[in-house]
Q: What sequence folds into this?
């Protein structure tokens, strides 16, 4: 009996093991581990190739005339243009593509194009292009996740999770920052996660970090240790730094997308555009070589207080311009490190000034450079938690966490009030997609009243009689008009229903002010069409006057049900056509 009991117990144990081996969580975590290891190795390989590429281009400078350095980014840009035009043959792949794939295509993305873009970035950055490496490495990691999903015939939400594993692993391995990698996926790529989906992403990030650390070591970026010297005084100074960082973030984004539009409008062969942008970067780099490439050394100098105020201040604008020329012309790279670079220069400049004015109650300029880094990144990415964590993991210094948190949150608020989209989603918005929390926003929530309203509005004076109003309705075929007083201010709205309900056959001499609706439902230009449509339905009316938020009697236009339906139909048709053109296998 004892033998049988032991045998039965062993069989149950074996059965439990078999069931456990077939559980979805084990499969997901195993795949996450594989993605983490492969991505970690891919990042090691990428960094090695990037170093080789940089040496191949800049190793020739010492034996060449000094002006030859101007041509290096142009040569790299020409090669990138050839790769993009003749192999990728579509719009450029970056983090925007990953967001689009997870939000709109169930995670399906072109692995081939992703890895071609990685190759292009090695050439672009290696030749002096002013960009970061995070977009290529995130593409590499996401591409690995997508390729694994395709190979194993995985579908549905699990594809997105595997892509998220790859993206988190990339950031984790590239910056030795597993926490930042995980939060980056939540804030930027997927938008929101269930607890069951969160664990594989953590597993993947941890294994990628282990692989990267085994090769490169687990050291931080090696900056001086700073402290929050006098909270009572510095709190206000860091608050102001957050405001400046928000404005700087907005400037960076506006410059990037403005230059992007300029290059798009140029009548120039697509192969030549990145070369031309590279040439412009080369001219800047001839005088200020700090703008070339990623710029880690320059950031470290700012963090350690080794750069002069004038140099840091100038590099804020030169880096923004050089980065915009690189990416706007069709170069390849990312925006995270340029944002960190600009933030370090802006924060360092600000810190030099305030420390010079108040040396007894402020930290040295490097502390402000550190906080500025995170704040500008938060303002451009709309990912304040990622910004806070990546600085903490890069420096391993907890002393500055409070000012970093304050400045990142303030910068995010300021930048969001100027630009509604992040640097990762602005391109999607310009193509007609609005992504929030990893999902496309309903068209009626994405469109505003100002998109559909009529600005040239036919109005009537409140002193006119009903007879004149009826004649106007017959000639214009409009069933309602805003009513203005003698000062040209909105005093009501009059409709055909008002005439029918309030005017008898012998009362055509009544003035409009006697029959119009005084308590007018109104709309504002910045309201969504969904909000206005609900208001129209609740009031059972067909039109709303659009007024200024600062003065509800100032008429700006009018919006009707038909205006909303017409714009909605147009946007739906545009969306269908865009989706039909999407072919991730191109």
A:
């Amino acid at each position: 009996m004892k033998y049988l009991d032991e045998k039965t117990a062993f069989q149950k144990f074996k059965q439990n093991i078999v069931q456990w081996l077939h559980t979805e969580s084990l499969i997901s975590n195993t795949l996450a581990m594989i993605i983490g290891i492969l991505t970690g190795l891919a990042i090691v390989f990428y960094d090695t190739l990037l170093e080789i590429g940089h040496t191949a281009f800049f190793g020739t400078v010492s034996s060449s005339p000094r002006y030859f350095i101007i041509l290096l980014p142009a040569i790299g840009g020409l090669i990138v243009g050839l790769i993009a035009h003749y192999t990728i043959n579509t719009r450029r792949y970056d983090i925007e593509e990953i967001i689009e794939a997870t939000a709109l295509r169930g995670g399906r993305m072109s692995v081939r194009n992703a890895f071609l873009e990685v190759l292009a970035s090695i050439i672009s950055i290696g030749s002096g292009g002013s960009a970061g490496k995070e977009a290529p490495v995130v593409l590499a990691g996401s591409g690995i996740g997508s390729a694994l999903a395709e190979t194993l015939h995985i579908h549905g939400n699990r594809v997105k999770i595997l892509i998220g594993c790859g993206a988190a692993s990339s950031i984790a391995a590239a910056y030795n920052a597993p926490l930042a990698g995980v939060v980056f996926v939540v804030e930027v790529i997927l938008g929101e996660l269930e607890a069951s989906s969160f664990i594989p992403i953590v597993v993947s990030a941890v294994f990628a970090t282990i692989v990267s650390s085994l090769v490169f070591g687990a050291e931080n970026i090696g900056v001086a240790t700073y402290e929050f010297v006098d909270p009572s005084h510095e709190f206000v100074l860091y608050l102001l730094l957050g405001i400046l960082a928000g404005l700087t973030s907005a400037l960076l984004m506006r410059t990037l997308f403005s230059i992007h539009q300029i290059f798009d409008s140029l009548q120039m062969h697509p192969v030549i555009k990145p070369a031309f942008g590279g040439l412009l970067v080369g001219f800047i780099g001839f005088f200020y070589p700090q703008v070339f490439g990623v710029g880690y050394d320059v950031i470290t100098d700012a963090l350690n207080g080794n750069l002069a105020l004038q140099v840091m201040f100038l590099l804020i604008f030169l880096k923004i311009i050089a980065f915009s020329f690189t990416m706007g012309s069709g170069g390849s790279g990312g925006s995270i490190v340029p944002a960190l670079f600009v933030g370090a220069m802006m924060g360092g400049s600000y810190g030099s000034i305030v420390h010079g004015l108040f040396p007894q109650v402020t930290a040295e300029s490097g502390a402000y450079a550190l906080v500025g880094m995170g704040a500008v990144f938060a303002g451009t990415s709309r990912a304040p938690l990622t910004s806070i964590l990546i600085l903490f993991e890069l420096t391993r210094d907890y002393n500055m966490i409070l000012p970093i948190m304050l400045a990142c949150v303030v910068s995010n608020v300021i930048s969001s009030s100027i630009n509604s989209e992040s640097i990762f989603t602005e391109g999607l918005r310009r193509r007609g997609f609005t992504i929030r929390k990893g999902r496309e926003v309903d068209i009626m929530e994405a469109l505003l009243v100002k998109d559909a309203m009529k600005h040239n509005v036919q109005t009537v004076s409140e002193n006119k009689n009903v007879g004149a109003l009826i004649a106007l309705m017959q000639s214009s075929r409009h069933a309602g008009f805003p009513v203005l007083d003698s000062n040209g201010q909105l005093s009501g709205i009059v409709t055909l229903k008002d005439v029918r309900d309030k005017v008898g056959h012998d009362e055509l001499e009544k003035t409009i002010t006697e029959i119009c609706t005084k308590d007018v439902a109104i709309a504002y230009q910045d309201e969504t069409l969904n909000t206005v449509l609900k208001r129209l339905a609740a009031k059972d009316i067909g039109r709303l006057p659009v007024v200024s938020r600062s003065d509800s009697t100032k008429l700006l236009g009018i919006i009707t049900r038909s205006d909303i339906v017409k714009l909605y139909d147009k946007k739906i048709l545009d969306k269908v056509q865009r989706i039909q053109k999407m072919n991730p296998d191109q």
